[in-house]
Amino acid sequence: MSGKVSAEAVEVQELSRISDRISFLFVERASVSRQDNSLTFSTEARTIRVPSAMVACVLLGPGCVVTHQGVSLMAEAGVSAVWCGEEGVRFYAAGSSLARTSHYLEAQAERATHRGKRLAVARAMYAMRFPGEDVSRLTMQQLRGREGARVRSAYRFQSEAWGVEWRRRQYVPGKFAESDAVNQALSSANSALYGVVHSAILALGCAPGLGFVHTGHHRALVYDIADLYKAELTIPVAFEVAASGKSPANTARRLIRDRVHGTHLLSRVCRDIRLLLFPEEPVEPPSELEGDVVYLWDEIDHRVPGGVNHADEVAVPW
């Protein structure tokens, strides 16, 4: 690869907020490296440069080789590097968080560990899926039942709209080709959606494994948030792809990329997470890029400045 490789760290002020970034890039059979503060994607035919500060997620498919400098740049710029299996339907790893503050993480932990607040967040998630319906008194069992009926209805509607037969959701890990076209397209579309959502969650500083509806999995919150958009995005795309007769995996990824961009999904994900975690706050919480300041916890004042010698504040018995 030609060009000088720079190892100079990316400054925070050079980065873009997650809601302003390109949603995702899917790459396979290429070498990924760094030139200055741009990611480079090289094949025998050409090399493409992409500013790292403008990308939310890079889906690395089979045949990709990533240099140490390429990985370090993605980590510095807060780009989620998602290593995918064949057809892009598996998730192996992700890069560092863009967040410089724990504001979102603390709010998430408080609500996820308090039974009443967790239920309130779960109800708010379902309310986003059922606009105009009152779910404020429904139990989790009732909410799950309503969601199941809603998903079944969405499959039936798209099946009739596109003239594509639908039996049931089916995906066996490692046996992608054994599923029908709708299921293949749905698996591929969902995988891309998970990558975008995972990027936003990491960028805001939330914990992907601390969910509200889903639990016990390292991507529980990813599934929670992604479920808000499947009926609108991935399910229609899957049936459209199946009806087209084109390659399910590649076509689904391209359509999801276009729909994610057209619906401003990254901005919506950030907004929805903010609404779920800070429903009482009239103003927007700090940007994920703000802060980068270390505090010390205090049981009275919540927090006090770090990097200060506090020995003179109180008498310390020895």
Q: Overview of this structure, please?
A:
- The chain is of the alpha/beta class and 318 residues long.
- It is built from nine helices and nine strands.
- The chain has helices at 68-77, 103-112, 115-129, 140-162, 181-204, 220-226, 234-244, 248-262, 265-277, and strands spanning 25-27, 31-35, 38-42, 47-51, 57-60, 65-66, 80-83, 295-298, 302-305.
- Strands 4-3-2-6 form a four-stranded mixed sheet. The protein has a three-stranded parallel sheet with strand order 1-5-7, with helices on both faces.
- It is flat, with a radius of gyration of 22 Å.
- The N and C termini lie far apart (63 Å).
- The relative contact order is 0.13.
Helix content: 40-55%
Helix-and-strand structural type: alpha/beta
| Assembly level | single chain
The SSE order reads EEEEEEHEHHHHHHHHEE
Strand tally: 9
